[in-house]
Automatic annotation (TrEMBL):
Residues 33-141, 181-281 form the Plastocyanin-like domain. This is Multicopper oxidase. PANTHER family: FI03373P-RELATED (PTHR11709:SF394), MULTI-COPPER OXIDASE (PTHR11709). CDD domains: CuRO_1_2dMco_1, CuRO_D2_2dMcoN_like. It comes from the Bacteria. Keywords: Copper, Metal-binding, Oxidoreductase. Transmembrane segments: none annotated. It holds the Pfam family Cu-oxidase_3. It comes from Anaeromicropila herbilytica.
Length: 295
């Protein structure tokens, strides 16, 4: 199974060959740093939402309850689903989910194994930037051995009322219309509150990166080189695999990278944009950064 640090996997019940999931779109307060909370929108009490894990060929029923003050939807980003299940009600026959109601998204998983996302696709410029997104992983039952498999979703927020250059405890509204973000998160936390990615010496490590928000994030690893093995949920043929140490994760993209943990230590793994490695421009380091730590 894939590990999503600081987030839960969405549980399901299987009834007559169908996997039944439940998502609750709702107001959520998320602690991004000790004592610093954001008032955002998420799923099942978390930002990002819980990670959904399925297999190719699965039949799924994902019931989405709307506990928000306005209509919403869920789009299954990168999945080949029927038109009325795609979750873009302003364009498609997929319906809006009005407040206090629910909708059952029903489809079979036709895509091959890979990394995908789910997110709102109604009043997208507002709702998506309020935090309504999560990961959807199609697992490979025949995959070659990977010792550890991590998923990281990248997000950014402007906390309203936080004076620049300080980090003050409190509970803050976020401005979804902002282009001037001051906090940058991995799985809903800023460094040093992020959870390290534990590795063992000579282990094969996979990291899945996803971005559904606005800014692009060039993610860089220290002390290692990695292979870029998948893009947008699609495996890259051996002849096309690139060896890199930085991969730009633009809005709407997912990337899978793999490396061999062969250089013991505590290594940064972070967005390389300097602004994104800070908590509201404070010192020393923060933001979209975690560590690879050998155990």
């Amino acid at each position: 199974m894939v590990i999503t640090p600081n987030l839960e996997n969405l549980q399901y019940k299987e009834i007559r060959g169908v996997k039944y999931f439940e998502l609750f779109a709702e107001k959520v307060e998320r602690e991004i740093l000790p004592g610093v909370w954001i008032k955002a929108w998420g799923y099942n009490g978390s930002i990002p939402g819980p990670t959904i894990q399925v297999y190719p060929g699965d039949y799924v029923n994902i019931r989405v309850y709307n506990n928000l003050p306005e209509a919403t939807s869920v789009h299954w980003h990168g999945l080949d689903v029927p038109n009325d299940m795609d979750g873009v009600p302003d364009i498609e026959p997929s319906p809006k989910i009005i407040p206090g109601s629910y909708f059952d998204y029903k489809f079979q998983i036709f895509n091959p194994p890979g990394t995908h996302m789910y997110h709102t696709h109604h009043i997208t410029h507002k709702q998506q930037m309020m935090g309504l997104e999560g990961g959807l992983i199609i697992l490979d039952p025949y995959a070659s051995i990977t010792d550890r498999d991590y998923f990281i979703m990248l997000q950014e927020f402007e906390l309203v009322g936080m004076p620049m250059g300080v980090v003050m405890p409190g509970s803050y509204d976020i401005n979804p219309m902002s282009h001037d973000f001051n906090f940058f998160t991995m799985n809903g936390r800023c460094f040093p509150y992020t959870t390290s990615l534990a590795v063992g010496y000579q282990e094969k490590i996979k990291v899945r990166l996803a971005n559904a928000m606005m800014d692009a994030h060039p993610i860089h690893i220290h002390g290692h080189q990695f292979d870029v093995v998948a893009s947008d949920g699609n495996s890259i043929a051996n002849c096309g695999i690139m060896k890199k140490n930085t991969i730009n994760v633009a809005s709407g993209e997912t990337w899978d990278i793999e490396f061999i943990a062969n250089n013991p230590g505590i290594w940064p793994f972070h967005c390389h944009i300097p602004h994104h490695m800070s908590n509201n421009m404070t010192e020393p380091s923060g933001g979209m950064l975690t560590t690879i730590i050998y155990i």
